[in-house]
Design goal:
There is one protein chain. By secondary structure, the protein is of the alpha+beta class. It has one domain. It is built from two helices and two strands; from the N terminus they run ααββ. Strands 1-2 form a two-stranded antiparallel ribbon. The chain starts with a helix and ends with a strand.
């Protein structure tokens, strides 16, 4: 479990670092949108969810974002 928490912390830190590279509020907002799309896209090959949804393993179906 320690390795899992470490990996999740690093993924979180990396995402925040990429988003906070923006120079103003608009840049940060756009980077946050881009990062969200990137993270969702990385999960989509595993499940056939329609756009605007993502797989929720706890309930076993696609849910809206």
């Amino acid at each position: 479990m320690q390795n899992l928490y470490h990996v999740l912390a690093v993924k979180h830190s990396n995402a925040i670092t990429r988003v906070m590279r923006g120079e103003n509020a608009e840049d940060i907002k756009q980077l946050a949108k881009d990062e969200t799309k990137r993270l969702i896209k990385s999960e989509l090959p595993n499940h056939k969810c329609s756009p605007g949804t993502i797989w929720d393993e706890t309930i076993g179906r696609c849910v809206p974002i």
